Amino acid sequence: KEKHKILHRLLQDST
Amino acid sequence: SHLLLVEPDKIFAMADPTTSDTDDKVLTTLCDLADRELVVLISWAKHIPGFSTLSLGDQMGLLQSAWMEVLILGVVFRSLPYDEGLVYADDLIMEREQCRTVGLLDLYCTLLQLIAKYRKLQLDKEEFVTLKAMALANSDSMNIENIEAIQNLQDILHEALQEYEKNRHLEDPHRGGKLLMTLPLLRQTANKAVQCFRRIMAEGRVTMHKLFLEMLEAKV
Predict the structure, then answer these.
(1) What is the pLDDT of chain B when averaged over all its residues?
(2) Do B56 and A5 touch (CB under 8 A)?
């Protein structure tokens, strides 16, 4: 998951 | 109707007006557009009923496998009214010659084949939004933890499509099947597109933004 950190972050964003 | 409501607003390519129109500039504009569309696509996915309740890992798996199919369906739908032009955005319509000079002729030809299929079917907006969600749910990702939850998502979307066709397209009882039978060519086209952009990435001709790079690398 470390490799896909932007996707990970965007999915966790509530907006 | 829910999918119609959560359909994202238009995105413009907004090519840099300060530089001249070289082949690499067109590719840069295209990659920049794709990067911004990906941000929108990820937030769109969260509005598909059932998507947000999947595990984070499964959400990532579906998006990493299907993102290019979803982007391509958008280009295809926007291009339906045009003859032989690819509407990447309202301000970025590419015709054969331009696609050829930037090295995307092969992709252009495959996209035209896909557009012709949907044009023949007269794909409507309701079907377009449902197919997009189906492409995501049916991504055949190798890294799925909860297969049952994904199956449930597919069934809900399938049911919505069947219900819609039963009410709106009574004249053709095979229409739903015809739409689903376009999905193999969509996958084939998306794979070709990923290969094209990976090649462009390897050549180092254009600067790509991080999310686009991340997704290109994630799709094995």
Answers:
(1) 96
(2) no
